[in-house]
Fold this sequence. Notes:
Structural class: mainly beta
Amino acid sequence: QVQLVESGGGLVQPGGSLRLSCAASGFTLDYYAIGWFRQAPGKEREGVSCKSIIGRTYYADSVKGRFTISRDNAKNTVYLQMNGLKPEDTAVYYCAIFYRGVEPDLNGDYVGYWGQGTQVTVSS
C-alpha cells in the first residue's frame, strides 16, 4: 500500500524558513521522480519543484534561489527546504511521486501519488 506522509508545515514570519518532509512507504523511492506542488485558497494548484531520478531539478520562477528540493533514498523521504519565505508562499503543499520512468514536470500531468498536504502560512 503506497503512502505519503507529509510533515513540517506551520506558521512562520516573512523571511523565515521551513523544511517540509514527505515520508514514503509501500514502494522504493529510488526509481521515481519526485515533486512538490502547492495550492493557495482560490487559486489553482501550481508546481513548485521537481527532481528526476538522475538529479535534473526544476523550480518555479517564483521560488528559484529560495527553495531546494532533495531526496534521501535511504530514508525513502523527500524534502523541500524553504528559505526567505514570503506571504505569497502561503498555501497547502503537496508532495508528489511521478509514474515510474517519466521525466517530471511542473504541470503535474504524470503524478502517480499525492501526499495529503501540509499547510504553510507566512504571516507576521
